[in-house]
Amino acid sequence: MKALITGANGFTGSHLAQALAKRGHEVVALVRQGSDLSRLKDVAVDYAYGDITDLASVQAAIAQVDWVFHLAAYVELGIVDGARMERVNVDGTRNVLTAARAANVQKMLYCSTIGVYGDTQGTVIDETFKRTQKTFSSAYDRTKLRAQQLVDQAAAEGFPVVSVMPSGIFGADDPHFGPVLQAFCSGKLKVWAGGDRITGIVHVDDLVDLMLLAMEKAPSGDHYIASAGELTTRDMFALFGKLTELDPPTEIAEPVVRVVGNLLTPIGKLLNWQPPISRERIHYLYDRCVRVDGSKAMRELGWAPRSPETVIRELASPS
Questions:
Q1: In 189-202, which positions are buried (b, 16+ CB within 10 angstroms) versus exposed (e)?
Q2: 78: phi > 0 → left, psi -120 to 50 → alpha, else beta; which?
Q3: What is the mean pLDDT of residues 154-161?
Q4: What is the model's pTM?
Q5: pLDDT confidence of 163, banded at 50, 70, 90?
Q6: Which CATH superfamily, name and number, covers 2-174+200-228+290-308?
Q7: What distance in Å separates the CA atoms of residue 268 and residue 272, rounded to the nearest whole number?
Q8: How many angstroms separate the Cα of 44 from the Cα of each of 40, 135, 153, 275?
Q9: Within its chain, how far is the Cα of 35 from the centroid?
Q10: Structural domain boundaries of the chain?
Q11: Mean pLDDT computed over 241-262
Q12: Which helix (H) or strand (E) covers residue 309, if one does?
C-alpha cells in the first residue's frame, strides 16, 4: 500500500511512518517547507511539501495514494492563536477529506482525541457516550470536535474513514511528558501541581498498532478510544520515584496554583508568552475530568497495549 501521513514529522506521525515502512508500505510524508524532519531521518519516506490549510498542496500529495492517515493538528493549551487553530484543525481536516474523497482513496484514518467527548465529570465512558458538555474547555477542544463532526459526516455519506481517539500519549521521545521526566530524573523537578488529575495512558507504539489495526479491520465510521488504563499524576510520580530511587516532587497547594495561574494569564496574553500555568491549564488540572474505557479496540480489533505501569517502567528504564 501507498500511505500518506499528515503530521508525519511529529511524535506519533514519525512512529507511524516507521511502522508502515517496516511493514513494506510506501510512505509519503506531507510536511511544510522548513519543517524539522529529524524524527524521520532514518525512515524510508518520500516527502510531499505542503500544508493542510492549502487545499491544492493536499490534493497533490494525496494523488495516487491508497491510505491517508490524518494526524496533523495544532495541539496546545493556555495562550493559543484561536484563529490559527481553527484553520489547522478544522479547515485543514476539511481539506484532507475533500482531497481524499476526490482521489477515491481506499481508506482514511483520523487521529482525534478523547477531548471530543467533553468533560465526563469523572464518569468512565466508551465510544457510545454522547457529549453532554455544552461549552468548551479550550479552543483545542472546540476545534477537534468540529473536525470530528466533519469526519463523521463524511463517513455517513459513504466515505471510508475511521477515527482513533487517543488519551495521553507516552514514549521515550515524547515531547510533552518526556522533558518533565528528564527534569525529574536529573533532580531538577522539585514541585508539581494537580496530583489527583487522572490521565488515560497509551504508549505511542501501541497507538500506532491500533491505527494500523483500525485501517486494516475497522468498519467505516467506527470510533476507537486508545487508552490502556489510567493513573493519577501522583501515582505516576510515585512509581517513577520507586523505580529511580528519587523522591517525588512536592505538590503545590491548589489555591496557590490558582492564584499564580490567574496572575500569569494576562501577562502571557500581553507578552505573547506561554506561561507554565494559566487559567486554561488550571481548568484541565482541577476542574475537568475525562475518563475513558479503551476495551472496544481490544475486544473488536485484537489490540493488546502494554499496561500503564509497564509504560511508566519503560520510560524510567529506557533500553
A1: beebbbbebbbbbb
A2: left
A3: 98
A4: 0.96
A5: very high
A6: NAD(P)-binding Rossmann-like Domain (3.40.50.720)
A7: 5
A8: 8, 43, 34, 38
A9: 19
A10: 2-174+200-228+290-308
A11: 93
A12: helix 308-316
